[in-house]
Specification:
This protein is α/β, with parallel strands linked by helices. The protein contains 15 helices and ten strands.
Amino acid sequence: MKSYQRISLCILLCIILTISAASGCRKQPEQESPEDSTGAAEATTLSEDLSMDEITLEGMAGDVLSTMTLEEKIGQLFIVCTDSLDFSAETSITDEMRENLARFQPGGVIFFSFNINTPEQTSTFITEMQKSVKIPLFIGVDEEGGMVARIANNKEMGTTSFPTMKVIGDSGSPEEAGKVGETIGKEISGLGFNLDFAPVADVMTNDANEEIGERSFGSDPKLVSDMVAEEVKGLQKYDVSATLKHFPGQGSSGEDTHKGYVGLDVTIDNLRDTDFMPFKSGIAAGADFVMTSHVSVSQITGNDLPSSLSDIVVSAILRDELEFENVIITDAMNMKSITKFYDSDEAARLAFQAGNDMILMPDDFSLAVEGILDAVNSGDIEEEEIDQAVLRILKVKIKRGIIPEDSAYFSS
């Protein structure tokens, strides 16, 4: 390992020596009580978590970043579907897909049910994709349970099928949500997936809401919060990144962002009192990702921009007010709420400028990449802003073992 580990260790030793010096004038008891011993152990663990680990991650991510070209950095900002790499390829890698993976170096690929036939086929497909890139991919999937379960709803895959999250919520037991997360995390990580676009953190406050419906744990924000936190922990126990969706919360919507513009009649107080609660809980539980929704909240932003394109929602509220420090990703950018009003290059630029780190499924991947590159070349986006987003992405990839610690990036 490189010098940043030695630096972080030195910092930790300095902290310990300072504490020892401060306590040296007090006579120590011959034997610590069990309570004192436990407290000291907890303090040491906390110190390591807050200093050495974060410093190490920063250093390792910086090492990877230093090897990347601007084009490779921009590639990391995107998670795409297989159609964007080769429209004719669905279940196995092709030469065109390999070429596009090597050319664009995307941050990840999302799988759908049409990409998944059998465990062997799925694992092989993922393995071949990973061989085609410089920096290992996020391999994502919507595996929520209920109707939105791309893997479990295929009986050939042999994974556990769960009821809707409303049923889990109705149990009143957050532990059940934790078991869902653990089971899904264990099973899909064994296939090669490392990112789940779950759990749904929306609070279901509108019975007419068809887009969210029974995908939500329920209408009680406290219960949903507890469920979300436990599922996050369960998923990430097996190094599958969890994604809180759909910020700022679209449980009150009555229309579908897949079909067109959706505006919510909510104030910031409405959101703080209800919708933000599960997101705060999931963030506190350590969620790696938050997904921004395409709903508009005009009473808050003062315009009709989708939340995913609003710096007020993404940067001022999610990043600053809720203090989320990990990866922010848009909802799918090929949804009608985006494509009816924006070309892929403009949508990608606006999404990044709003504060998203990653852009999911642009309608035209090549054009979206071009939009970001042109914005950097024109000065509308600073390369340092790209670097900061990529560092957040790389830190998650390192933390989850997607970029392994024995990688050549980190050799001394």
